[in-house]
Design a protein that fits this description.
The complex is a heterodimer of chains A (about 230) and B (about 270). Chain A has about 230 residues and is an all-alpha fold. Chain A contains ten helices and no strands. In chain A, helix 2 packs parallel to helix 5, helix 4 packs across helix 5 and helix 9 packs antiparallel against helix 10. The radius of gyration of chain A is 20 Å and the shape is globular. The mean pLDDT of chain A is about 90. Chain B has two domains: about 150 residues, Periplasmic binding protein-like II (D-Maltodextrin-Binding Protein, domain 2, 3-Layer(aba) Sandwich); about 110 residues, 3-Layer(aba) Sandwich (D-Maltodextrin-Binding Protein, domain 2), CATH 3.40.190.10. The termini of chain B are far apart. Chain B has about 270 residues and is of the alpha/beta class. Classes of the chains: A mainly alpha (about 230), B alpha/beta (about 270). At the A-B interface, helix 2, helix 5 and helix 9 of A face helix 1, strand 2 and helix 8 of B.
Chain lengths: ~230, ~270
């Protein structure tokens, strides 16, 4: 039986069946990736904006490093977090390895550079556009950060979504730091890897379709929020 | 603006709390580092509920290659080990990382290959001869190449056959058993697998079982306890209960009772002394 033909049926059966195991996996995926996106956004949005507004020696190096880190291989991020959180590592005493928290940490490391780098670029453009108005208002650069972030919010939704996409799609990092433990740290992507390794390709692809549907929902929700805001701005 | 910030902070707080809650509600659990062969075959799904029901201890399985399982345990990240590399396990105890090692069960390795058997290994008398035939025919062979128990066993077989594998026909994949079988199925190559993973594997395409039954293909699994002095933070008493249960009559029965398509995949052989 061809895997691709069965995948749609399998995906449909998975969704309609409301299998509690699958629901648990979906819930954990959403929980881990949304937590990572929230934390990363809280850190990266102001960081990106600050990088756009301040000029200081070494700024270029930081910008280049952030841009480069957008391509950080997930497995490298995972290995780094593994070595940090392992009992033999510097943060070992907290016993966080093989927990959802470890997975959030790894995903934050992966998506923070993406959100920060893209924010910097957007805010820099916006700042050039409004530089005179902002200066005439007598705003300090620190006060400009929230103003500019708020002004750029529609574009920044897409930036944050890019981060969410990376977080929910990656498997290399969460596999290493989570351990793919059934019922504890198994998320959609690690479940797909597991089913593939069992040769159960229709189920693996079906899970993939469910994950795609999930990401689609999140993006649709963000689109609606953006559109509503745009219309209100008129 | 401030209102929004408050909403965001509350959301993070809730997410954080739910994550910690999740980490705490299974206080009585151990982390077991084990191999992909035991996990992929479905053995743990079959036997763990029995153990958890009897003791209230949850077993969280991290399924990796045997080499990585040893490394996880050495670093103090697992409470117990269930792997299949007797020589490596004994070394683990000798080096002072483990306090106890015991035989739990066995199964065997089988040689899988293309339906047409271009190297003619199904006629071989011994596995050494079968390996030699593959090398002489330079038929494609997919090796795990990941320092797992199966990979180490495969290397011992080549050595016994007097063959130093290499060349375009010998493909080291650096993958787990399942992915290696998937790749072997894709390139129609010979491959050595543990029987459990092979029987439970659902994407064989043209591959079929060609050679089995030689004593050299025996595959012993052992359970290990980690040294409490080296890693005092581990849950040694819970791990001991798990180790003891595996070796007990109930544990051994649970292992014997696990079948796939009516076929037993692991044979308990703990020494009851």
């Amino acid at each position: 039986m061809p895997a691709d033909a069965n995948a749609f049926q399998t995906a449909l059966a998975l969704i309609l069946g409301m299998d509690p195991v699958l629901l648990g996996i979906v819930a954990l995926s959403v929980q881990v990736s949304l937590s990572a996106v929230l934390i990363a956004a809280l850190l990266a949005l102001p960081l990106g904006a600050a990088l756009a507004l301040w000029r200081f020696p070494g700024r270029g190096a930081i910008v280049v490093a952030l841009n480069a880190l957008m391509g950080l291989p997930p497995v490298v991020a995972g290995l780094t977090v593994y070595l940090l959180l392992s009992r033999a590592g510097p943060l070992g005493q907290f016993g966080l390895l093989f927990t959802p928290t470890a997975m959030v940490v790894a995903q934050v490391i992966l998506i923070l550079p993406i959100i920060a780098a893209l924010t910097r670029q957007q805010i820099e453009e916006l700042h050039q556009e409004y530089r005179e108005q902002l200066t005439s208002l007598g705003l300090s650069r620190l006060r400009m950060i929230p103003t500019l972030l708020w002004d750029a919010r529609l574009g920044l939704i897409t930036v944050v979504l890019a981060g969410f996409g990376r977080a929910s799609a990656e498997v290399g990092a969460v596999m290493i730091v989570g351990g793919n433990i059934d019922g504890v740290t198994r998320v959609m992507t690690t479940a797909i890897v597991l089913e593939t390794s069992k040769g159960n390709l229709p189920l693996a692809l079906g899970l993939g379709l469910v994950l795609l549907g999930l990401v689609l929902l999140v993006n649709a929700a963000a689109y609606l929020v953006g559109e509503t805001a745009r219309r209100r701005l008129g | 603006m401030q209102h929004k910030t408050r909403i965001a902070l509350t959301a993070i707080g809730i997410l954080g709390l739910s994550l910690t809650a999740q980490a705490q509600d299974g206080e009585r659990y151990i982390v077991l580092a084990s191999t992909t062969s035991t996990d992929n075959s479905g053995l743990f799904d079959a036997i763990l509920p029995t153990f958890t029901e009897a003791t209230g201890i949850e077993v969280r399985v991290v399924a990796v290659g045997t080499g990585q399982a040893f490394e996880i345990a050495r670093r103090g990240d697992a409470d117990s080990l269930l792997v299949h590399d007797t020589a490596g396990e004994e070394r683990f105890v000798e080096e002072g990382y483990g306090t106890e090692r015991a035989d739990v069960m066995y199964n065997d390795f089988v040689i899988i290959g293309p339906d047409g058997d271009p190297a003619g290994i199904s006629e071989a008398e011994t596995v050494a001869e079968a390996m030699r035939l593959i090398a002489e025919a330079e038929a494609a062979f997919a090796s795990r190449g990941d320092d797992s128990g199966t990979h180490r066993a495969e290397q011992r077989l080549w050595e016994a056959a007097g063959v130093e594998p290499g060349g375009a026909w010998y493909r080291e994949l650096g993958s787990g058993m399942g992915p290696t079988l998937n790749t072997a199925a894709g390139m129609n190559a010979y491959v050595m697998s543990d029987r459990a993973t092979w029987v439970a594997f659902e994407n064989p395409r043209e591959l079929t079982l060609l050679f089995e039954g030689d004593e050299a293909l025996f595959n012993q699994y052992g359970s290990l306890l980690i040294d409490p002095e080296r890693h005092p933070h581990l849950k040694h008493d819970l791990a001991e209960q798990w180790h003891g249960w595996l070796l007990s009559a109930e544990g051994q029965q649970a292992i014997a009772g696990f079948t796939v398509n009516g076929q037993a995949l692991f044979f308990p052989n703990a020494h009851s002394d």
